[in-house]
Backbone:
DNA sequence: CTTTTTAATCAGGTCCCCCTGACTAAAAAT
DNA sequence: ATTTTTAGTCAGGGGGACCTGATTAAAAAG
């Protein structure tokens, strides 16, 4: 039987972590407002970029399917990324209905550095703590994968295949 | 000298955690789409709610100051919360320029349950791991507070006073 | 008793995520 | 060869986080 008090304590820390990190990011962000280094969430444009980083050259339809987005939303995000020079669109030669999306060098670099960036706050942890954190997060993530899988197996497949693996490849 | 490989590993897990949690929330969220149980971030309307949960009856100006928002943004968020029946607005009797914001019962309940909610994924952790996680997050949060404090001491005060304490009270 | 400061408001804007509906062009199926 | 399906597009919309500018009402200061 897990100790409820300990759970609550950890839960509180986690929520606090979310809030403090958000605030810290906001501050840093506004300091050098020249570049927008928003930390690439798994959402909208970020979703697209991360997915392409693992599987470049997908069609818009493919992206939409994998990411559980409508074709229109996908088009919107892709177009925004094109404007930011992070991806390119080109018509498929084999099927001229299709639009193939490719990462630009900048796009790839962005996806990589964003993903590979080690936040400064990890510097305060000892090696032992880092190991512990990794172990714990592995368990937590597994649990969340299960949750997703239970709620929506189809989606789980796509998600797992695309981004989870991407992250794993990068770090292990 | 902290092991860079370990840091990278942990960083990857953290990013993965962010993405998986986001996806999981999204799914749960859409299942019972009747209520919108968005997980109350420290942003916009959520910011206001959390702050009021710790200090009810603030004026809009006070809220704006504490949360580093313009009066207009604050008004917008407050009005949205009023529409959702989470807070009420009333003119101050002592200074009729001021509008005092109060949490409704629903608002308080929302703030509390959202904050006090223990995510299911913590069930998979042992007592030892929960302790480890708490210790680690405490260090991380402290580090982030430092970052905020260094970048903007004024803001740090406000932030610390309002929400950090709120969370701490709740869980300890 | 004016002038100035303060708390709020309305109006309008930027950008983000994401969706439905309506419509074209190209490929696949009949 | 015609119908149907598929991939994308445009138009428009809802909600969210913020912001600047202009204006009003009330309190504080001169």
Residues:
């Amino acid at each position: 039987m897990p100790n409820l008090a300990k759970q609550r304590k950890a839960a509180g820390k986690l929520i606090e972590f979310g809030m403090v990190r958000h605030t810290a990011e906001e501050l840093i962000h506004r300091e050098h407002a020249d570049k927008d280094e928003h930390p690439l969430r798994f959402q909208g444009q970020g979703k697209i970029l991360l997915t392409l980083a693992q599987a470049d050259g997908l069609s818009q339809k493919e992206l939409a399917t994998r990411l559980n987005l409508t074709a229109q939303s996908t088009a919107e995000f892709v177009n925004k990324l094109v404007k930011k020079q992070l991806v390119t669109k080109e018509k498929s030669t084999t099927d001229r209905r299709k639009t193939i999306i490719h990462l630009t060098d900048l796009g790839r670099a962005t996806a990589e550095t964003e993903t590979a960036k080690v936040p400064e706050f990890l510097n305060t942890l000892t090696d032992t703590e880092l190991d512990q954190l990794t172990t714990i997060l592995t368990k937590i993530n597994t649990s969340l994968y299960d949750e997703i899988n239970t709620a929506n197996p189809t989606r789980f497949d796509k998600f797992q295949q695309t981004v989870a693996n991407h992250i794993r490849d990068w770090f292990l």
Remarks:
- The two ends of chain A are 33 Å apart (CA to CA).
- Chain A touches chain B through 72 residues (CB under 8 Å).
- Chain A has a mean pLDDT of 85.
